[in-house]
Amino acid sequence: MSETGTTGAAESAPPRPAPTDAGAERLSVTGVSKRYGAVRAIRNADMTVRAGTVHALVGENGAGKSTLIKILSGATTADTGRITFDGEPVTIHTTADAIGLGIATVYQEPQLFPDLTVAENVFTGREITRRGKVDWAAQNAQVVELLELIGLPARYSTVAVSELSIAEQQQVSIAKALVGNAKVLILDEPSAILTDTEIEVLFGVVRRLAASGVSIIYISHRLDELFLIANEVTVMRDGQTLGTWPIEELSVRRIVELMVGGILEDTPPDHKAADAPPVLVLEKLSCAGEYADVDVAVRPGEIVTLYGLIGSGAAEIAETVYGMRRATSGRMLLEGTPIAPPSPRAAKKLGIALLPANRKLQGLFSFQSIAFNISAGHLPLLSRFGTWMDRGRERTVARDFIKRLAVKTPHERQPVSAMSGGNAQKVVLARQLVERPKVLVLAEPTQGVDVGAKEEIHKIVRSLADEGTAVLIVTSDLPEAIRVSDRLQVVRAGTTTVEFGPGASQADVLAAAAGALDHEEAA
Amino acid sequence: MSTAVSDRPPASAPQDSEGSGPPTSRARQLLSGVVRALLTQRIVLLLVLLVAVVITMTTLSARNYLSAPYDLSYMSATLISAVPLVMLGLAELLVITSGRGGIDLSVGAIVSLVSMVFGFAYGEWGWPLWAAIVLAAAVGGLCGAVNGFLIAFIGYPALITTLATYYAYSSLAVVINNQQPISTQPIQDFFSAAGTVPVAGLQVPLGTITFLLPTAVVIWLLLNRTTYGRRLYAIGTNDVAAQWSGIDVRRTRFLAYTAAGIISGLVAVVTVAQFASARPDAGVAGNGMALPAITIAVLGGVAITGGIGRVAGVVLATLLIVWLNAGILLAVPGNAGSQFQLFALGIVLIFAALLNGLTQRKYGGTG
Amino acid sequence: MSSQTLSPAGGPPAAEQKHTAKERGRVLPFPITGQEIVLILVIAVLWAALAVSTPAFLTSSSVVPLLVAMAPVALIGIGMTVIIITGGIDVSVASIVMVCAVIVAKTMVSSGIPLPVAVLLSVVIGGLLGLINGVLIAYGRVHAIIITFGTANLFKFLGLQIFGGTTVDNIPGTLDFFGRGAAGRTLGIPHSFLIMLVIAALAWYYLRHTAGGRHLYAIGNDADAARLAGVKVQRRVLLAYVLTGALTGLAACFVIARGTSTLAPNVGAGMELAAIAAVVIGGTSIMGGRGSVLGTILGALLVQTVTSGVTQLGWRSQLSSLFIGIFILIAVGADLLRQRTRRTA
Lengths: 523, 367, 345
Hints:
The complex is a heterotrimer.
Chain A: E1 25-36, E2 39-50, E3 54-59, H1 65-73, E4 80-85, E5 88-90, H2 95-101, E6 103-106, H3 118-123, E7 129-130, E8 133-134, H4 136-150, H5 166-179, E9 184-188, H6 196-211, E10 215-219, H7 223-229, E11 232-237, E12 240-246, H8 252-260, E13 280-287, E14 291-298, E15 303-308, H9 314-321, E16 329-334, E17 337-338, H10 344-350, E18 352-355, H11 359-363, H12 370-375, E19 383-384, E20 388-389, H13 391-404, H14 421-433, E21 439-443, H15 451-466, E22 470-475, H16 478-484, E23 487-492, E24 495-500, H17 506-514
Parallel strand pairs in A: 3-10, 3-11, 6-9, 9-10, 15-22, 15-23, 18-21, 21-22
Antiparallel strand pairs in A: 1-2, 1-4, 4-5, 7-8, 11-12, 13-14, 13-16, 16-17, 19-20, 23-24
Helix pairs in contact in A: 4-5, 8-17
Chain B: H1 26-40, H2 42-62, H3 72-77, H4 82-97, H5 107-124, H6 129-154, H7 158-175, H8 185-190, E1 196-199, E2 202-205, H9 206-225, H10 227-237, H11 239-244, H12 249-275, H13 290-299, H14 311-331, H15 335-363
Antiparallel strand pairs in B: 1-2
Chain C: H1 34-53, H2 60-85, H3 93-111, H4 115-140, H5 144-163, E1 185-186, E2 189-190, H6 191-209, H7 211-221, H8 223-228, H9 233-258, H10 271-281, H11 293-312, H12 319-340
Antiparallel strand pairs in C: 1-2
Helix pairs in contact in C: 1-11, 2-6, 2-9, 2-10, 2-11, 3-4, 3-5, 3-9, 4-5, 4-9, 6-7, 10-11, 10-12, 11-12
């Protein structure tokens, strides 16, 4: 494993941009903190971005990157701290403030208007007009220039955004950000949905912008890419900025060690999975456009984790197991029998349960009670003749789970909207456990959950496995993946790659996921 | 429609209490508690308003401001108009609660069409009453099923779809008997079904016992005691989560519209009895029946976004409107009175909607 | 979710990847959509069929009343198009017609005002009523359907109060210019129709070529994103309802012009549904973000053709409602299909 961590392609890549006005400070934050309720998202963060540099911002999920970006883009305001721009202190209260300063942000989800053309999207809110009429020619001319800069065909200028692919739409978002003569461009995980060629084009754009004096804040989980594009790297962990280093002083390994901090290197409990045949097997499972050639096997009592970053395809694999998505080739076997559940209902009947990744959108019935939320997936069971609700039984089941999962609540009638993330997550988890499933799939099980509840949920999952359930976790939370699993498979670019056994080091796994360890087996 | 700020804390999350103000007195806490109860517990608010209306009207009556006495026997006599209102209000309750912009503008048109069908069956073809009623319910259910199929299975937006079926059904109602109402002998005799029965010394319209109460009870049981009711509230609260939980979202929604159709069919029977005639414009005359039904649902606490709504709310809202309207008729006699009712209905709807929106934002929904 | 091909590492270069993006050499997308072309064809076919079965159909004594009848609906439809593009709706227009009509009629009878004053009065009143709608919807954050249901009732109450329980009789022919008799036409085409076309052209231009017009589409696509981009969402929504109210006021004058010298309280009944039907059949998406005035004009023409045709053929007049309902369902279905074939949700 090479120390520098760069891939072979880097040797022929164009040199990283030399920062112009080296040392000229463009944007600086000092002592910034922000809390959401009881959770401190960032505390005392410091970061200085110089003009004409590509400044990478890295950190684990929950390290505070998104919050810092939201503060810089005006989507939220810091509780404490100072921001200076070109040496002058500034306040950024709204997105308009940020844009006015010249800070443009491109989010992962392109915020475009599907029915309007690319040119219209780029110019919404700042149209070029001549005597009241929109000057289409002038707008198009500028957009064509931008499109050529970005690497999209010029004719896209008059094409409705809805007809472009997601990757192309993201590129349009970048073009939109550039129209306002941005001095600082924030790119949030831009490469997550791009192919390698598209990434090359993106890098070309980034280099040209940097050369013209624009500062780029580049957030990415793909550490190998940083060595192709970034000048400096700021690492965040647990809401704090650990520091900023020139990229020359770093390696993928080193960055990983900083991100991870070496605290949670637990030795996983001595756990022997049953030697029984696997309950769930995915054999060369593929779904066109999402993932391909996925091989997974989960034995009863075993916890297998698919670790993948956003865009890796891991989430879509979980959806297929649960019937929310159809595979286009390959096989799925449950206890030896091929299955292809067409819907979650069918999957549940087979004994597969799934905890959805996005609690608010896919899991919770927000203003309904805990009991309602738990029983929603098991109405036939908790009723007589499948029609008359057995409310006594429902109450008992709810109370039972409240106790078992240590849900903090006065009673089962409390609406879940008032609960903390961790407690609410336990309620959704309870729903999956009512009818003891054969296979339990957990998607991002502790996202947005505080440390204490996280710990408890892990213990619960562990004990479920001990009782014989086959558990498949899909997560982008690295420490969690390592702590809980018996076996960990890295999912990258739509396919399962390296597999790690218990005792894997976080650095190795992260490196594998970042691409520095392709096709290498770790002990 | 995606927003960039995905993990923004919910609007109702408690603010960081940095620095506290002066301690609030017990009285102020009590007052804010009462206000909160009034706003979030729609039943409470409706009861309060109902009591206020009744007291106002009986006081005006006692002081001879009204053209006729506003007493218990008057109040119970006016219940005749409550019957179709409660029933259609419950129909709207079902479809609005099913979520995804659920609404049914066609209920009045279904009433018209089924009135004619019932008129044919009972008034001209000589069917026995029970069979004609069953037919009415079935035809109404079929009309509702068309709505449900388009909306739940194909994905048509509810508003424009039920607008289109409103057009279609109301035109069929008129065309089916060449715009002529059916007032044959059996129909005219049926008027007796709109008579009253003595209950606790008052003359209560028969329709409340034979139609209103059973419907309200059945719907209440459906919503509160059956698995279907749970599924309905689930899909109305969050149909994505319902899908992930294994609930058959489309079938549940489809059944809601079908049930609304069945109820509309039964309302047609009531209407024929009330007017002693099967009229082709029964449900669409004037404002039509859909608007008052939707008003009552919204007033009764049904959230237009789905997932919230109670039978008690609809019933109380109906009583409020009916007895308020009855009082207006006595206070402002003649045409002006019925016009003023229009005004009252409009104001009430807007007020109720604004209130629903406010409580949803501040307190996370009405109880 | 997305159906694009995300190739794993080492996919084909961008130039080889397939796009379904259409080739457009112009600066803007083509002004006529497929749906509008279909509508033109359908109308042409219907007219041809009617001309064949009732020779009287293509005479000016049939066509002119048809144009006169569809003009007010189309005019209201122009405003309704704007509203629906922003994602709203307005079911109170029928009541606005009633209020404007009764006030203008009564004023004409009692004070003998000239045409320009009558029109100004009607437009201003309509605009004020539209303002009420606009304020409640733009700033009250309640669904437009509920608000306009409520204001429909309120305005109707107001109108009935002004009617005072009787009809308005002996209305002078001040407004004949809009469409009654020879004075109401130029080259055989009724003035109300021509005026409506002019306004439609202006609206078309506004929607297509001004920043404000494009902002309306942005709002209908994603009101939050529009706000973040700097669009004054609430102001635009408010103006949409005021504009519709004003246009409805003008339409009320057209309605008076084509009626008798007696105005009854049921004036305007059903016009909201006709306008909405015209808009939807014309291809504007009820979900917002897409639509054009040309489609609405064609939709109104189709609706009126069906109504007049049914009468001409001697069928029951209510059958036209049935056909309109079916056309609405077909149009919405077409819109759904269009949405399904889009790449993004």
